[in-house]
Write a structure and sequence with these properties.
The chain is mostly beta strands and 193 residues long. The chain contains no helices and 14 strands. The strands form two sheets. Strands 1-4-13-6-7-8-9 form a seven-stranded antiparallel sheet, with no helix packed on it. It has a seven-stranded antiparallel sheet with strand order 2-3-14-5-10-11-12, with no helix packed on it.
């Protein structure tokens, strides 16, 4: 299923001696809104649904905490997110972990397709360390949860995608402000539907 997923940014494959694992480093351009990450948004790759108890595990690292955005999760968008905007899931259905340029704490973001994204805090301050996020439902899409670094899950029952909505998955970071590149490191991504 992953053979049509893509790496975005300038890709390099390295060994991380600190974390003792291999990783993809994906470097963005200085241009605002240029993503670095891994995504599966090709035609007919919108295979994740709530009624099938969709699950994503992503181990990642962003090398900066200012002038950047992050989205790790599911959505109905075939355009890469965060899509150069802090309105990450506006007018889309989706659920995931996100960082807007105004955030200092990781957020759960979700939307059922209406005009505005709903956010709730994950309480972990954004930093340049390695993190792992889980985005999932275990009750056929009624409740969606986001968990960061094995902490307490943030679970919500409102403003979620309908249980039969087909969604793509991705784990991306992007730069904003045109000053620097963002180096996004992907250590592991696991998806099940």
């Amino acid at each position: 299923l992953l053979n049509t997923c893509s790496l975005t940014g300038t890709a390099g494959y390295t060994y991380d001696a600190t974390d003792k694992t291999a990783k993809w480093t994906l470097t963005t351009a200085v241009t605002d809104g240029t993503n670095g990450g891994i995504n599966c948004v090709a035609t007919n790759r919108d295979i994740i649904r709530g009624d099938q108890n969709g699950y994503l595990y992503s181990k990642f690292k962003a090398d900066q905490t200012t002038n950047n955005r992050v989205y790790v999760g599911f959505s109905t968008s075939s355009t890469l997110l965060p899509n150069n905007a802090d309105t990450i899931l506006d007018n889309l259905s989706g659920v995931g972990l996100c960082i807007r340029t105004s955030d200092t704490v990781y957020q759960m973001c979700r939307n059922d397709g209406d005009a505005s994204t709903d956010y709730s805090t994950l309480t972990t301050t954004e930093d340049t360390g390695v993190h792992y996020a889980e985005v999932y439902t275990v009750d056929s899409g009624t409740t969606w949860c986001v968990k960061l670094d094995g902490g307490t899950a943030n679970c919500q029952t409102t403003e979620n995608p309908t249980s039969t909505t087909r969604m793509f998955w991705e784990a991306n970071g992007e730069t904003d402000g045109g000053a620097t590149v963002l180096v996004w490191s992907t250590y592991l991504d696991y998806v099940q539907s």
